[in-house]
Specification:
The chain is α/β, with parallel strands linked by helices. It is built from 15 helices and 20 strands. The chain has 3 domains: 250 residues, FAD/NAD(P)-binding domain, CATH 3.50.50; 102 residues, Flavocytochrome C3, Chain A, domain 1 (Alpha-Beta Complex), CATH 3.90.700.10; 106 residues, Fumarate reductase/succinate dehydrogenase flavoprotein-like, C-terminal domain (Methane Monooxygenase Hydroxylase, Chain G, domain 1, Up-down Bundle). Pathway: Cofactor biosynthesis; NAD(+) biosynthesis; iminoaspartate from L-aspartate (oxidase route): step 1/1.
Length: 516
Protein backbone atom coordinates (compact mmCIF):
# COMPACT_ATOMS: atom_id res chain seq x y z
CA UNK A 1 0.00 0.00 0.00
CA UNK A 2 1.26 3.48 -0.84
CA UNK A 3 0.14 6.44 1.25
CA UNK A 4 -0.48 9.72 -0.57
CA UNK A 5 2.01 12.31 0.64
CA UNK A 6 1.13 14.92 -1.96
CA UNK A 7 0.11 17.48 0.65
CA UNK A 8 3.71 17.46 1.93
CA UNK A 9 5.33 17.80 -1.49
CA UNK A 10 8.36 20.07 -1.65
CA UNK A 11 8.85 20.47 2.08
CA UNK A 12 12.28 19.84 3.59
CA UNK A 13 12.39 16.35 5.14
CA UNK A 14 14.39 15.84 8.31
CA UNK A 15 15.23 12.22 9.11
CA UNK A 16 15.84 11.64 12.80
CA UNK A 17 14.18 12.61 16.08
CA UNK A 18 17.23 13.37 18.24
CA UNK A 19 18.59 16.76 19.27
CA UNK A 20 20.09 17.52 15.84
CA UNK A 21 16.88 16.76 13.94
CA UNK A 22 14.57 18.53 16.37
CA UNK A 23 16.75 21.63 16.51
CA UNK A 24 17.01 21.79 12.72
CA UNK A 25 13.23 21.64 12.42
CA UNK A 26 12.80 24.39 15.02
CA UNK A 27 15.38 26.60 13.34
CA UNK A 28 13.53 26.25 10.03
CA UNK A 29 10.25 27.52 11.51
CA UNK A 30 8.00 28.99 10.27
CA UNK A 31 8.87 27.21 7.01
CA UNK A 32 6.79 24.01 6.81
CA UNK A 33 8.94 20.91 7.28
CA UNK A 34 8.43 17.16 7.67
CA UNK A 35 10.17 15.38 10.54
CA UNK A 36 10.49 11.58 10.33
CA UNK A 37 11.13 9.58 13.48
CA UNK A 38 11.09 5.81 13.32
CA UNK A 39 10.12 5.66 17.01
CA UNK A 40 8.16 7.97 19.29
CA UNK A 41 10.25 11.10 19.84
CA UNK A 42 13.10 10.45 22.23
CA UNK A 43 12.58 6.69 22.45
CA UNK A 44 15.69 5.70 20.49
CA UNK A 45 17.68 8.94 20.40
CA UNK A 46 21.21 8.87 21.81
CA UNK A 47 20.67 12.51 22.81
CA UNK A 48 18.23 11.34 25.47
CA UNK A 49 21.00 9.31 27.11
CA UNK A 50 23.65 12.05 27.18
CA UNK A 51 24.90 12.56 30.73
CA UNK A 52 28.04 14.62 30.38
CA UNK A 53 26.43 17.83 29.19
CA UNK A 54 27.25 20.50 26.67
CA UNK A 55 30.71 22.07 26.35
CA UNK A 56 30.79 25.86 26.06
CA UNK A 57 33.19 28.59 27.19
CA UNK A 58 30.77 30.39 29.51
CA UNK A 59 32.92 30.48 32.68
CA UNK A 60 34.68 33.62 33.84
CA UNK A 61 38.10 31.97 33.45
CA UNK A 62 37.34 30.52 30.03
CA UNK A 63 37.32 31.63 26.39
CA UNK A 64 36.36 30.04 23.07
CA UNK A 65 40.04 30.14 22.16
CA UNK A 66 40.87 27.88 25.12
CA UNK A 67 38.00 25.57 24.20
CA UNK A 68 39.35 25.48 20.63
CA UNK A 69 42.85 24.57 21.86
CA UNK A 70 41.53 21.63 23.88
CA UNK A 71 39.37 20.45 20.97
CA UNK A 72 42.32 20.49 18.56
CA UNK A 73 44.55 18.65 21.02
CA UNK A 74 41.98 15.89 21.52
CA UNK A 75 41.42 15.56 17.77
CA UNK A 76 44.95 14.22 17.27
CA UNK A 77 45.79 16.19 14.15
CA UNK A 78 42.62 15.54 12.17
CA UNK A 79 40.32 18.38 13.19
CA UNK A 80 39.28 20.87 10.54
CA UNK A 81 40.60 23.89 12.40
CA UNK A 82 38.41 26.41 10.61
CA UNK A 83 35.29 24.37 11.37
CA UNK A 84 36.32 23.80 14.98
CA UNK A 85 37.05 27.51 15.55
CA UNK A 86 33.70 28.52 14.12
CA UNK A 87 31.72 25.90 16.06
CA UNK A 88 33.24 26.46 19.52
CA UNK A 89 32.79 30.22 19.20
CA UNK A 90 29.08 29.65 18.66
CA UNK A 91 28.74 27.31 21.66
CA UNK A 92 27.84 29.97 24.29
CA UNK A 93 25.05 31.24 22.05
CA UNK A 94 23.78 27.64 21.72
CA UNK A 95 23.46 27.42 25.50
CA UNK A 96 21.41 30.63 25.50
CA UNK A 97 19.29 29.32 22.62
CA UNK A 98 18.46 26.15 24.55
CA UNK A 99 17.72 28.15 27.67
CA UNK A 100 15.24 30.25 25.69
CA UNK A 101 13.54 27.01 24.60
CA UNK A 102 13.05 26.03 28.22
CA UNK A 103 16.09 23.87 29.07
CA UNK A 104 16.71 24.18 32.81
CA UNK A 105 20.50 24.08 33.04
CA UNK A 106 22.02 23.76 36.49
CA UNK A 107 22.97 27.02 38.18
CA UNK A 108 24.65 28.05 41.39
CA UNK A 109 22.77 29.98 44.10
CA UNK A 110 24.08 33.26 42.64
CA UNK A 111 22.56 32.40 39.24
CA UNK A 112 25.85 31.57 37.48
CA UNK A 113 26.30 28.34 35.55
CA UNK A 114 27.23 25.25 37.54
CA UNK A 115 30.09 24.00 35.36
CA UNK A 116 31.72 20.56 35.36
CA UNK A 117 35.17 19.34 34.35
CA UNK A 118 35.66 16.44 31.96
CA UNK A 119 38.62 14.68 30.42
CA UNK A 120 41.06 16.74 28.32
CA UNK A 121 39.32 20.05 29.13
CA UNK A 122 41.58 22.70 30.62
CA UNK A 123 38.68 24.51 32.29
CA UNK A 124 35.36 23.70 33.91
CA UNK A 125 33.12 24.32 30.91
CA UNK A 126 30.52 21.54 30.87
CA UNK A 127 26.99 22.88 31.29
CA UNK A 128 24.71 20.30 32.90
CA UNK A 129 21.01 19.92 33.50
CA UNK A 130 19.66 17.94 36.49
CA UNK A 131 23.17 16.64 37.18
CA UNK A 132 23.64 13.63 34.90
CA UNK A 133 20.34 14.06 33.04
CA UNK A 134 21.40 16.72 30.54
CA UNK A 135 20.35 14.89 27.40
CA UNK A 136 16.99 13.99 28.86
CA UNK A 137 16.30 17.61 29.86
CA UNK A 138 17.38 18.99 26.48
CA UNK A 139 15.21 16.46 24.68
CA UNK A 140 12.24 17.24 26.95
CA UNK A 141 12.42 20.90 26.01
CA UNK A 142 13.02 20.30 22.30
CA UNK A 143 10.22 17.74 22.00
CA UNK A 144 7.81 20.11 23.70
CA UNK A 145 8.86 22.94 21.37
CA UNK A 146 8.46 20.75 18.27
CA UNK A 147 5.00 19.57 19.32
CA UNK A 148 3.78 23.14 19.74
CA UNK A 149 5.27 24.40 16.45
CA UNK A 150 2.56 24.25 13.76
CA UNK A 151 5.00 24.40 10.83
CA UNK A 152 6.47 21.00 11.77
CA UNK A 153 4.63 17.93 10.47
CA UNK A 154 5.79 15.10 12.72
CA UNK A 155 5.58 11.55 11.36
CA UNK A 156 6.39 9.18 14.22
CA UNK A 157 6.77 5.49 13.56
CA UNK A 158 7.97 6.24 10.03
CA UNK A 159 11.39 5.01 8.90
CA UNK A 160 13.28 6.31 5.87
CA UNK A 161 14.42 3.38 3.75
CA UNK A 162 16.03 5.00 0.71
CA UNK A 163 16.72 8.42 -0.76
CA UNK A 164 15.59 8.94 -4.33
CA UNK A 165 18.48 10.50 -6.25
CA UNK A 166 18.83 11.44 -9.91
CA UNK A 167 21.89 13.11 -11.43
CA UNK A 168 23.48 13.37 -7.97
CA UNK A 169 20.52 15.39 -6.65
CA UNK A 170 17.89 14.44 -4.09
CA UNK A 171 14.41 13.97 -5.52
CA UNK A 172 12.56 12.30 -2.69
CA UNK A 173 12.43 9.88 0.23
CA UNK A 174 11.02 6.37 0.35
CA UNK A 175 9.84 5.57 3.85
CA UNK A 176 7.63 3.00 5.52
CA UNK A 177 5.46 2.51 8.55
CA UNK A 178 3.28 -0.35 9.75
CA UNK A 179 0.66 0.54 7.13
CA UNK A 180 2.89 0.52 4.08
CA UNK A 181 5.19 2.63 1.93
CA UNK A 182 5.31 6.43 2.01
CA UNK A 183 6.74 8.47 -0.86
CA UNK A 184 7.81 12.04 -0.14
CA UNK A 185 8.74 14.31 -3.03
CA UNK A 186 11.42 16.78 -1.94
CA UNK A 187 14.71 18.31 -3.06
CA UNK A 188 15.87 18.99 0.52
CA UNK A 189 16.71 16.23 3.00
CA UNK A 190 18.57 16.35 6.32
CA UNK A 191 20.02 13.16 7.81
CA UNK A 192 20.14 13.46 11.60
CA UNK A 193 19.93 9.81 12.57
CA UNK A 194 22.65 9.61 15.21
CA UNK A 195 25.45 7.09 15.58
CA UNK A 196 26.49 3.49 14.98
CA UNK A 197 26.70 1.97 18.47
CA UNK A 198 24.02 -0.60 17.68
CA UNK A 199 26.47 -2.26 15.28
CA UNK A 200 28.47 -3.47 18.30
CA UNK A 201 27.58 -5.86 21.11
CA UNK A 202 28.77 -3.48 23.83
CA UNK A 203 27.54 0.08 23.43
CA UNK A 204 26.06 2.92 25.43
CA UNK A 205 23.87 3.86 22.43
CA UNK A 206 20.29 2.68 21.99
CA UNK A 207 20.20 -0.55 19.99
CA UNK A 208 18.17 1.18 17.28
CA UNK A 209 21.10 3.49 16.40
CA UNK A 210 23.17 1.45 13.97
CA UNK A 211 24.14 3.78 11.17
CA UNK A 212 20.92 3.89 9.14
CA UNK A 213 21.63 7.47 8.10
CA UNK A 214 25.07 6.50 6.85
CA UNK A 215 23.50 3.69 4.83
CA UNK A 216 20.98 6.12 3.30
CA UNK A 217 23.79 8.49 2.33
CA UNK A 218 26.01 5.70 1.01
CA UNK A 219 23.28 4.29 -1.24
CA UNK A 220 22.67 7.85 -2.48
CA UNK A 221 26.31 8.10 -3.55
CA UNK A 222 27.48 10.53 -0.86
CA UNK A 223 31.03 10.67 0.45
CA UNK A 224 31.64 9.48 4.01
CA UNK A 225 34.79 10.41 5.93
CA UNK A 226 36.82 9.31 8.97
CA UNK A 227 34.69 6.20 9.47
CA UNK A 228 37.46 4.31 11.24
CA UNK A 229 37.36 6.61 14.26
CA UNK A 230 35.03 5.04 16.80
CA UNK A 231 35.14 6.34 20.35
CA UNK A 232 34.94 3.79 23.13
CA UNK A 233 33.84 5.28 26.43
CA UNK A 234 36.12 3.83 29.11
CA UNK A 235 33.52 3.67 31.87
CA UNK A 236 30.34 1.88 30.84
CA UNK A 237 28.62 -0.06 33.61
CA UNK A 238 29.82 -3.66 33.39
CA UNK A 239 26.57 -5.56 33.65
CA UNK A 240 24.04 -7.42 31.51
CA UNK A 241 21.95 -4.41 30.43
CA UNK A 242 22.06 -3.33 26.78
CA UNK A 243 22.51 -0.55 25.96
CA UNK A 244 25.13 -0.31 28.68
CA UNK A 245 24.49 2.42 31.25
CA UNK A 246 27.10 5.14 30.99
CA UNK A 247 29.17 6.43 33.91
CA UNK A 248 29.88 9.96 32.79
CA UNK A 249 33.46 11.11 33.07
CA UNK A 250 32.17 14.08 35.03
CA UNK A 251 32.43 11.64 37.95
CA UNK A 252 36.16 11.41 37.32
CA UNK A 253 36.16 15.18 37.02
CA UNK A 254 34.79 15.19 40.57
CA UNK A 255 37.74 13.09 41.73
CA UNK A 256 36.70 9.45 41.22
CA UNK A 257 39.53 7.12 40.20
CA UNK A 258 39.97 3.84 38.34
CA UNK A 259 41.04 0.78 40.33
CA UNK A 260 41.20 -2.98 39.88
CA UNK A 261 40.03 -5.77 42.16
CA UNK A 262 43.15 -5.36 44.33
CA UNK A 263 42.54 -1.64 44.83
CA UNK A 264 45.44 -0.66 42.55
CA UNK A 265 44.93 2.71 40.84
CA UNK A 266 46.30 1.51 37.51
CA UNK A 267 46.24 4.89 35.70
CA UNK A 268 47.89 6.92 38.45
CA UNK A 269 51.20 7.26 36.59
CA UNK A 270 49.74 8.14 33.18
CA UNK A 271 49.81 11.79 32.01
CA UNK A 272 46.45 13.21 33.00
CA UNK A 273 45.68 10.01 34.93
CA UNK A 274 41.92 9.31 34.86
CA UNK A 275 41.30 12.57 33.00
CA UNK A 276 43.51 11.70 30.04
CA UNK A 277 41.75 11.71 26.62
CA UNK A 278 39.11 9.02 26.31
CA UNK A 279 41.02 6.85 23.85
CA UNK A 280 43.98 6.60 26.24
CA UNK A 281 41.78 5.75 29.21
CA UNK A 282 39.77 3.21 27.20
CA UNK A 283 42.92 1.41 26.04
CA UNK A 284 44.32 1.36 29.57
CA UNK A 285 41.12 -0.21 30.89
CA UNK A 286 41.00 -2.67 27.95
CA UNK A 287 44.60 -3.79 28.48
CA UNK A 288 44.18 -4.15 32.24
CA UNK A 289 41.15 -6.35 31.68
CA UNK A 290 43.02 -8.37 29.04
CA UNK A 291 45.69 -9.03 31.68
CA UNK A 292 43.04 -10.77 33.77
CA UNK A 293 41.88 -7.96 36.04
CA UNK A 294 38.46 -6.55 36.79
CA UNK A 295 38.13 -2.79 36.56
CA UNK A 296 36.13 -0.37 38.69
CA UNK A 297 35.30 3.30 39.09
CA UNK A 298 35.95 4.25 42.70
CA UNK A 299 33.80 7.19 43.79
CA UNK A 300 33.78 6.34 47.49
CA UNK A 301 35.98 9.27 48.47
CA UNK A 302 35.09 11.71 45.70
CA UNK A 303 32.28 12.59 45.30
CA UNK A 304 31.49 10.16 48.11
CA UNK A 305 28.29 10.82 50.04
CA UNK A 306 27.29 13.53 47.52
CA UNK A 307 27.03 10.97 44.71
CA UNK A 308 23.21 10.52 44.77
CA UNK A 309 22.64 14.27 44.60
CA UNK A 310 25.27 14.89 41.92
CA UNK A 311 24.34 11.88 39.75
CA UNK A 312 20.77 10.79 40.42
CA UNK A 313 20.34 8.76 37.21
CA UNK A 314 23.53 6.77 37.71
CA UNK A 315 22.80 6.36 41.40
CA UNK A 316 19.41 4.87 40.56
CA UNK A 317 20.70 2.18 38.19
CA UNK A 318 23.59 1.36 40.55
CA UNK A 319 21.03 0.86 43.32
CA UNK A 320 19.05 -1.48 41.06
CA UNK A 321 22.25 -3.50 40.57
CA UNK A 322 22.84 -3.68 44.32
CA UNK A 323 25.68 -1.15 44.35
CA UNK A 324 25.99 1.93 46.55
CA UNK A 325 28.56 4.22 44.84
CA UNK A 326 29.31 5.95 48.15
CA UNK A 327 30.46 2.63 49.61
CA UNK A 328 31.12 0.25 46.69
CA UNK A 329 33.40 0.45 43.63
CA UNK A 330 31.36 0.40 40.40
CA UNK A 331 32.31 -2.28 37.81
CA UNK A 332 33.20 -0.74 34.43
CA UNK A 333 34.43 -1.67 30.96
CA UNK A 334 34.87 0.18 27.63
CA UNK A 335 31.93 0.35 25.24
CA UNK A 336 31.22 2.02 21.90
CA UNK A 337 29.95 5.49 22.63
CA UNK A 338 30.42 7.90 19.71
CA UNK A 339 31.38 7.91 16.04
CA UNK A 340 33.69 10.70 14.96
CA UNK A 341 33.24 9.78 11.29
CA UNK A 342 30.14 10.19 9.19
CA UNK A 343 28.70 11.87 6.12
CA UNK A 344 31.25 14.38 4.84
CA UNK A 345 29.74 17.88 5.03
CA UNK A 346 30.87 21.46 4.57
CA UNK A 347 30.39 24.37 6.95
CA UNK A 348 26.66 24.54 6.20
CA UNK A 349 26.13 20.79 6.59
CA UNK A 350 25.91 20.08 2.83
CA UNK A 351 27.00 16.67 1.60
CA UNK A 352 28.47 15.76 -1.79
CA UNK A 353 24.92 15.04 -3.04
CA UNK A 354 22.92 18.12 -4.01
CA UNK A 355 20.01 18.67 -1.66
CA UNK A 356 21.36 16.37 1.07
CA UNK A 357 22.51 17.74 4.41
CA UNK A 358 23.63 15.99 7.59
CA UNK A 359 23.69 17.17 11.18
CA UNK A 360 24.69 15.73 14.54
CA UNK A 361 26.56 12.46 15.00
CA UNK A 362 25.71 11.28 11.48
CA UNK A 363 27.74 14.18 10.05
CA UNK A 364 31.48 14.57 9.85
CA UNK A 365 31.98 18.32 10.26
CA UNK A 366 35.68 18.17 11.14
CA UNK A 367 35.13 19.32 14.73
CA UNK A 368 36.11 16.04 16.38
CA UNK A 369 38.99 14.85 14.25
CA UNK A 370 40.25 11.46 15.40
CA UNK A 371 38.94 11.72 18.95
CA UNK A 372 35.96 13.74 20.18
CA UNK A 373 36.54 16.05 23.12
CA UNK A 374 34.05 15.24 25.87
CA UNK A 375 30.64 16.98 25.63
CA UNK A 376 31.43 18.57 22.26
CA UNK A 377 28.79 16.42 20.55
CA UNK A 378 25.58 17.91 21.94
CA UNK A 379 27.12 21.31 21.41
CA UNK A 380 27.93 20.50 17.78
CA UNK A 381 24.40 19.25 17.11
CA UNK A 382 22.77 22.40 18.46
CA UNK A 383 25.22 24.81 16.82
CA UNK A 384 25.23 23.17 13.38
CA UNK A 385 21.44 22.73 13.26
CA UNK A 386 21.04 26.48 12.81
CA UNK A 387 23.56 26.61 9.95
CA UNK A 388 21.91 23.65 8.23
CA UNK A 389 18.52 25.35 8.54
CA UNK A 390 19.88 28.59 7.08
CA UNK A 391 21.42 26.71 4.16
CA UNK A 392 18.20 24.81 3.45
CA UNK A 393 16.14 27.98 3.65
CA UNK A 394 18.48 29.60 1.14
CA UNK A 395 17.93 26.83 -1.43
CA UNK A 396 14.15 26.89 -1.51
CA UNK A 397 11.80 24.28 -2.90
CA UNK A 398 12.44 22.98 -6.38
CA UNK A 399 9.95 21.85 -9.01
CA UNK A 400 7.86 18.86 -8.08
CA UNK A 401 9.62 15.65 -9.00
CA UNK A 402 7.84 12.84 -10.83
CA UNK A 403 8.65 9.91 -8.58
CA UNK A 404 8.53 6.52 -10.24
CA UNK A 405 7.53 3.46 -8.26
CA UNK A 406 10.62 1.79 -6.90
CA UNK A 407 11.29 -1.20 -4.72
CA UNK A 408 11.88 -0.24 -1.11
CA UNK A 409 14.44 -1.77 1.22
CA UNK A 410 13.29 -4.11 3.96
CA UNK A 411 13.64 -3.02 7.60
CA UNK A 412 17.26 -3.35 8.71
CA UNK A 413 18.48 -5.76 11.38
CA UNK A 414 22.08 -5.51 12.63
CA UNK A 415 22.06 -8.73 14.69
CA UNK A 416 24.32 -10.69 12.32
CA UNK A 417 26.74 -7.79 12.01
CA UNK A 418 27.28 -7.11 15.73
CA UNK A 419 29.64 -10.02 16.54
CA UNK A 420 31.66 -9.36 13.38
CA UNK A 421 32.39 -5.72 14.24
CA UNK A 422 32.82 -6.45 17.94
CA UNK A 423 35.56 -8.98 17.22
CA UNK A 424 37.32 -7.18 14.37
CA UNK A 425 37.00 -3.48 15.17
CA UNK A 426 37.29 -3.14 18.92
CA UNK A 427 39.49 -0.90 21.06
CA UNK A 428 42.63 -2.63 19.70
CA UNK A 429 42.72 -3.64 16.03
CA UNK A 430 45.07 -5.34 13.60
CA UNK A 431 45.07 -6.18 9.91
CA UNK A 432 44.17 -9.84 10.33
CA UNK A 433 41.15 -9.08 12.49
CA UNK A 434 39.93 -6.27 10.23
CA UNK A 435 40.41 -8.42 7.12
CA UNK A 436 38.36 -11.23 8.67
CA UNK A 437 35.59 -8.72 9.35
CA UNK A 438 35.72 -7.51 5.74
CA UNK A 439 35.53 -11.06 4.44
CA UNK A 440 32.38 -11.69 6.51
CA UNK A 441 30.73 -8.35 5.78
CA UNK A 442 31.33 -8.15 2.01
CA UNK A 443 28.75 -10.73 0.90
CA UNK A 444 26.22 -9.43 3.43
CA UNK A 445 26.62 -5.86 2.18
CA UNK A 446 26.09 -6.92 -1.45
CA UNK A 447 23.01 -9.00 -0.71
CA UNK A 448 19.42 -7.81 -0.53
CA UNK A 449 18.53 -8.78 3.01
CA UNK A 450 17.66 -7.26 6.36
CA UNK A 451 21.37 -7.31 7.26
CA UNK A 452 22.65 -5.57 4.13
CA UNK A 453 22.42 -1.94 5.26
CA UNK A 454 24.09 -2.60 8.61
CA UNK A 455 26.71 -4.74 6.87
CA UNK A 456 27.40 -1.96 4.35
CA UNK A 457 28.09 0.58 7.10
CA UNK A 458 30.22 -1.95 8.99
CA UNK A 459 32.11 -2.78 5.81
CA UNK A 460 32.85 0.88 5.10
CA UNK A 461 34.16 1.30 8.66
CA UNK A 462 36.35 -1.78 8.24
CA UNK A 463 37.71 -0.67 4.86
CA UNK A 464 38.60 2.72 6.32
CA UNK A 465 40.27 0.99 9.29
CA UNK A 466 42.38 -1.32 7.14
CA UNK A 467 43.47 1.60 4.95
CA UNK A 468 44.69 3.64 7.93
CA UNK A 469 47.99 1.97 8.73
CA UNK A 470 48.74 3.97 11.86
CA UNK A 471 47.28 4.60 15.30
CA UNK A 472 45.56 7.90 15.92
CA UNK A 473 42.82 8.93 18.35
CA UNK A 474 40.00 6.41 18.49
CA UNK A 475 41.69 4.13 15.92
CA UNK A 476 44.48 1.99 17.38
CA UNK A 477 46.29 -0.63 15.28
CA UNK A 478 48.45 -2.97 17.36
CA UNK A 479 50.38 -3.77 14.16
CA UNK A 480 50.91 -0.03 13.50
CA UNK A 481 51.08 1.42 17.03
CA UNK A 482 52.67 4.74 16.06
CA UNK A 483 51.05 7.76 14.44
CA UNK A 484 52.09 8.73 10.93
CA UNK A 485 54.11 11.97 10.62
CA UNK A 486 51.21 13.73 8.92
CA UNK A 487 47.47 13.23 9.28
CA UNK A 488 44.98 12.99 6.46
CA UNK A 489 41.27 12.30 6.45
CA UNK A 490 40.09 9.35 4.39
CA UNK A 491 36.87 9.52 2.37
CA UNK A 492 34.88 6.64 0.91
CA UNK A 493 31.85 6.08 -1.23
CA UNK A 494 29.83 2.89 -1.33
CA UNK A 495 31.28 2.02 -4.74
CA UNK A 496 34.94 2.32 -3.82
CA UNK A 497 34.41 0.65 -0.43
CA UNK A 498 32.86 -2.39 -2.15
CA UNK A 499 35.66 -2.45 -4.71
CA UNK A 500 38.37 -2.27 -2.04
CA UNK A 501 36.64 -4.96 0.00
CA UNK A 502 36.40 -7.21 -3.06
CA UNK A 503 40.14 -6.87 -3.67
CA UNK A 504 40.88 -7.69 -0.02
CA UNK A 505 38.56 -10.72 -0.05
CA UNK A 506 40.13 -12.02 -3.26
CA UNK A 507 43.61 -11.63 -1.79
CA UNK A 508 42.79 -13.75 1.27
CA UNK A 509 43.29 -17.49 0.70
CA UNK A 510 40.15 -19.51 1.36
CA UNK A 511 40.10 -21.80 4.37
CA UNK A 512 40.37 -24.83 2.06
CA UNK A 513 43.42 -23.40 0.26
CA UNK A 514 45.07 -22.49 3.53
CA UNK A 515 44.79 -26.11 4.74
CA UNK A 516 46.20 -27.65 1.54
Amino acid sequence: MTTDMSSLTGRPVIIGGGAAGLMTALCLAPEPVVLLSKSPLGAEASSMWAQGGLAAAVGEDDTPALHFTDTIAAGAGLCDEAAAWRIVHEAPAAVERLTALGVAFDRRPDGSWRLGLEAAHGRKRIVHATGDGTGREIMRALIAAVRRTPSITLLEGVEARRLLVEDNAVRGVLAANDRGVLTLSTNRVVIATGGIGGLFADSTNPGGCFGQGLALAAHAGAKLSDLEFVQFHPTAFDGPSRPMPLLTEAIRGDGAVLIDETGLRFMADEPGAELAPRDIVARAVWRHRAAGHRTFLDARKNPGADFPQRYPVISAFCKMAGIDPANDPIPIRPAVHYHMGGIAVDGEGRSSVQGLWACGEAARTGLHGANRLASNSLMEAIVCARWVAESIDGLGAGPRAMLRDRAHAAPADPAIVRPILTQGLGVLRDRDGIARAIRSLHPLARAQSTASDAALVGLMIAVAAIRREESRGGHFRSDFPESAPSAQSLSLTRANALATARDIVESIPSARSAKS
